């Protein structure tokens, strides 16, 4: 069973693109929530992310990952595959 992935993004954010490329490269499906022009969604994202307003903001299952750098660090540390698998 794989973990549900939620990623808040904006259209022209290079970090969002990098994070999505990494997830796609792992074969992971994700629920992308674009906050470009939706202030309510951005406030929702910020509240869930402890006040952070930058994108991307990523959750895998119940775990808040953070942004693109944190996602890539999980991959470098060899922890991302297990997290994606729901372990």
Automatic annotation (TrEMBL):
It comes from Allohahella marinimesophila. Keywords: Cytoplasm, Disulfide bond, Electron transport, Redox-active center, Transport. PROSITE patterns: GLUTAREDOXIN_1, GLUTAREDOXIN_2. The gene is grxC. Transmembrane segments: none annotated. This is Glutaredoxin. Belongs to the glutaredoxin family. NCBIfam families: GRX_bact (TIGR02181). The keyword Transmembrane helix does not apply. InterPro entries: GLR_AS, Glutaredoxin, Glutaredoxin_subgr, GRX_bact, Thioredoxin-like_sf. CDD domains: GRX_GRXb_1_3_like. It comes from the Bacteria. Has a glutathione-disulfide oxidoreductase activity in the presence of NADPH and glutathione reductase. Reduces low molecular weight disulfides and proteins. Pfam families: Glutaredoxin (PF00462). Residues 5-65 form the Glutaredoxin domain. The lineage of its organism: Bacteria, Pseudomonadati, Pseudomonadota, Gammaproteobacteria, Oceanospirillales.
């Amino acid at each position: 069973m794989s973990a549900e992935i939620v990623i808040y993004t904006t259209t022209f954010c290079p970090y969002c693109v990098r994070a999505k490329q990494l997830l796609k490269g792992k074969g992971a499906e994700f629920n992308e929530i674009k906050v470009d022009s939706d202030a309510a969604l951005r406030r929702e994202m910020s509240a869930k992310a402890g006040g952070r307003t930058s994108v991307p903001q990523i959750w895998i299952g119940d775990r808040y990952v953070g942004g693109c750098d944190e996602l890539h660090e999980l991959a470098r540390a060899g922890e991302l595959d297990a997290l994606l698998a729901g372990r």
